[in-house]
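Hi support team,

I've been running sequence recovery on a batch of backbones for a student project. Most finish fine, but this one hangs at about 90% for roughly twenty minutes before it completes. I'm not sure whether the input is malformed or the queue is just slow. I've pasted the structure tokens below so you can try to reproduce it. Let me know if you need the job ID as well.

Thanks,
M.K.
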């Protein structure tokens, strides 16, 4: 097999970064393989590792459906680790299952709740309390899965 210039190879390894280094500005240096760690061909940059790849992925298939005057929301969680199997439910991969559901008026959260299952009912009474004069713009909902160690993951949005 012929090496392709610029292609990824097994020679590349993941940088090991400790959780204690999250949020710290660190200097990263790269030099040609076998060359000196300093000199004209070395590149240097300062970057802050935020651990984004360790956070839970966004839920998928966020659906809203009206039953009477209540909006019923449901979604499917995704797994960052060991989620490739097709024979069973996606593994949790976190200490506990928790989601943050935010109801938004434009970009302003008017209600934030945490739920322990991939579903939430936004009742007519909640909507009346959150939007006494009706929504000022497009009312949306945003859902993110939580991690006890990594915090809130990426979110998914839908219109209400």
């Amino acid at each position: 097999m012929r090496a392709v210039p610029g292609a990824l190879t097994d020679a590349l390894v993941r940088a090991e970064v400790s959780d204690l280094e999250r949020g710290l500005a660190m200097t990263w240096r790269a030099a040609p393989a076998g060359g000196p760690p300093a000199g004209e061909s070395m590149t240097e940059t300062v970057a802050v590792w935020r651990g984004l790849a360790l956070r839970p992925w966004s839920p998928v298939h966020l659906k809203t459906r009206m039953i009477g005057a209540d909006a019923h929301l449901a979604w499917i969680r995704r797994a960052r680790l060991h989620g490739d199997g097709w024979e069973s439910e996606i593994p949790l991969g976190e200490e506990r299952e928790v989601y943050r559901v935010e109801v938004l008026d434009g970009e302003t959260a008017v209600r934030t709740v945490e739920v322990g299952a991939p579903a939430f009912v936004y009742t007519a009474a909640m909507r009346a309390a959150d939007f006494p004069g009706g929504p000022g713009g497009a009312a949306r909902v945003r859902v993110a899965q939580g991690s006890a160690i990594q915090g809130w993951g990426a979110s998914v949005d839908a219109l209400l």
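--
Follow-up from support: It reproduced on our side and the slowdown came from queue contention, not your input. The longest helix spans residues 124-130. No action needed from you.
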